[in-house]
Amino acid sequence: MQFSRKRLRNGMTVLFEKRDLPVVSVSISNRFGAAYESSTLKGIAHVIEHSVFMGTKTRSHEQISSEIEKRGGILNAFTSHEITSFWFKLPSEHLFTGLTILSDLLLHPLFNEKKFEKEKRVIIEEIKMYHDDPARSAQDLILENLYTKPFGQGIAGDARTVSSLTRDFTYDYFKGVYSPEHYIVTVVGNANFAKICAFLEDTFKLEKHKPLSFSVTKKNGTTIEKRKGIDQAHFVFAVHAPLPGERACYALELLDAYLASGMSSQLFLKIREEKGLAYTIQSALNAEKNYSFYSLYTGTTAKAIPLIQKIILEELSKLQHMTSLQLDESKERLIGLAHLSKEESTKVMMDLLFTEYATKAEDYYARERILSSITLSEVRALAKSLSLSSFSTVSIIPA
């Protein structure tokens, strides 16, 4: 593995993992997301993400996508709580076509008035789509029970906040929060690092925007929502978790590998195989730099939710007695999965991005070593802490 990093004169941080396969995955990501918004502006980061694709001074919306896709590539973007990212995957020979398009999106978007109003309607339909999916909706609602507003609100906002945004205000807001010194560029594939850095320094100029900031206030709560038109109940259990980079966060990954990850996990065996209460059990560590929570989801019956919650708390408590063998098996599982994930350049690109944002990208390559060094006492201590801590739940049940 060959890894390089460079801080450019314009403030951009460039990360590069060299590969021999003639494919390259590239992201340009801004240290700005939904966490930086007030309640009245909730969703503006996501609206900006959509808006830059509507056309630039030299490219229409159709040209933006077709210039990537006709070369066999993929172009996409996402908004998280702390980051907005624009990325592509292309054959290596077309790397600078992709970089030129991403640069054009970030430097010269038009925010056409008519298209902007139309795109707001599209985003409102997207919000409705997520709400009408009860499994997704339950995952969104758990945030409201873990954090106070405005952080504890959905990334996409709601119909009221999105509808209230005007083209001029949103464009001015974009100009205020998008700046090269906030950008992380991640490149994984067969490419020339020096040429990439030279292109980015020539294309983007230093703007000296002030660093952005936001606050996170934790809480805990319970939501029970009755909904018509569904046959299955959806249940999410969540606890606040250690932040990325902390050894306790690595301990949590190992704990999860034993507790809830895969068909051999304790919760899967207990809830599905032994009790027959659910089809699936899903766990997730949701974290960026400034927040972290661990969640468990299952689809079941409304009647079974109290029993499932009881089983989760019991199994968390039992983890205080995790054995050395169980810990070693968890380490082997996670390290094996890490090896498998490295096959996909886009996955590595994303992992490097979020690791750099939370700590430093080099920690991505140290992950296996750190996981191997986690002791049984560290995992047991974390398990005790989680089993005794307050938790939040969301239940969406048939009306």
Show the helix and strand layout.
Elements lengths: L1 E6 L5 E6 L4 E8 L13 H8 L9 H9 L4 E6 L4 E8 L3 H13 L5 H20 L1 H13 L12 H6 L2 H11 L5 E7 L3 H11 L18 E6 L5 E8 L6 H13 L6 H9 L6 E7 L4 E9 L4 H14 L5 H18 L3 H14 L3 H12 L2 H13 L3 E7 L1
Parallel strand pairs: 2-6, 7-11
Antiparallel strand pairs: 1-2, 3-5, 3-6, 4-5, 8-10, 8-11, 9-10
Helix pairs in contact: 9-12, 9-15, 10-11, 11-15
Structural description of this entry:
This protein has 399 residues and is of the alpha+beta class. It folds into two domains: 2-203, Metalloenzyme, LuxS/M16 peptidase-like (Cytochrome Bc1 Complex, Chain A, domain 1); 222-398, Metalloenzyme, LuxS/M16 peptidase-like (Cytochrome Bc1 Complex, Chain A, domain 1, 2-Layer Sandwich). The protein has 15 helices and eleven strands. The protein has helices spanning 44-51, 61-69, 95-107, 113-132, 134-146, 159-164, 167-177, 193-203, 247-259, 266-274, 305-318, 324-341, 345-358, 362-373, 376-388, and strands spanning 2-7, 13-18, 23-30, 74-79, 84-91, 183-189, 222-227, 233-240, 281-287, 292-300, 392-398. Strands 1-2-6-3-5-4 form a six-stranded mixed sheet, sandwiched between helices. Strand 9 (281-287) and strand 10 (292-300) form a beta hairpin. Helix 9 (247-259) crosses helix 12 (324-341), helix 10 packs antiparallel against helix 11 (305-318) and helix 11 packs antiparallel against helix 15 (376-388). The longest helix is centred in the N-terminal third of the chain and has 20 residues, at 113-132. The mean pLDDT is 96.
